[in-house]
Amino acid sequence: MNTTLCGRACAGLATVEFAMVLPVLVLLALPVVDFARAIQANLVLINMAREGASLASRSSLPVGESPPYQQIMGSLAATAVPLDMARDGTIYVTKIQGYLDRGVVRNVVVEQYRWAQGWHRSAFAPDSAVWTCGSGGTGWATVGANDGSCAGIPSAGPASPAVAVMNGQLADGEVIYAVEGFYRFSMLFGGLDLGFGKLPAIGPTLESIAIF
To answer: Is 104 a member of any domain?
Structure first.
């Protein structure tokens, strides 16, 4: 008789304790979910940028009238699952060349492309961290050009825009490609007020760059 009463009482007490602890467990689990999503998104961006840099370096010959950078960026975006790059992503491909100028090799930008599909659909276009198109008489090509190129970049020479990427490591005429991936990351619970503080926020923009 006593054992039965104790068992019921203990079960009831355990239920009450669990009900008290459950909200704390849920609050601890929420940031774990968001951090896991952010880590996954960042890894996808890293792998995408690496593959893009490799493809760009092997696809520098023109296809038709323009290099196939839009095809490359479209393929990269299609393989970036579960990220919706067309809605929340941007990709840049920047061609950089070493140029001997008065005895010193400068790394200069000779071409830059922005993924046209992502830009036109989402208008999400943070500036490239390598070099920003729009300075020194340059500007993004019109929609009709359909290659997403930065127009007005001079050929490698004294007027070319210099960049710090791998500065001093290129020989005269040597070419490298920098591929950048940006993603607009939305946290599920970022900034949620817990009463004693807010959950940390990640993003909203994730970025990865690879050079090949």
So the answer is: yes
pLDDT tens-place string over residues 110-124: 999 999 876 656 667
Task: Judge contact between 208 and 128, C-beta under 8 A.
Answer: no
Domain of 96, in residue numbers: 7-211
What are the pLDDT digits (tens) for 93-148?
999 999 999 899 999 999 999 998 766 566 677 999 999 998 888 998 865 556 78
- What is the rounded distance in angstroms from the CA atom of residue 51 to the CA atom of residue 190? 30
What DSSP line would sit under 13-47, residue for residue?
A: HHHHHHHHHHHHHHHHHHHHHHHHHHHHHHHHHHH
Give every CB contact of residue 187 below 8 A, 6+ residues apart in sequence: 34, 37, 38, 201, 202, 203
The number of folded domains in the chain is 1
In a domain, 186, yes or no: yes
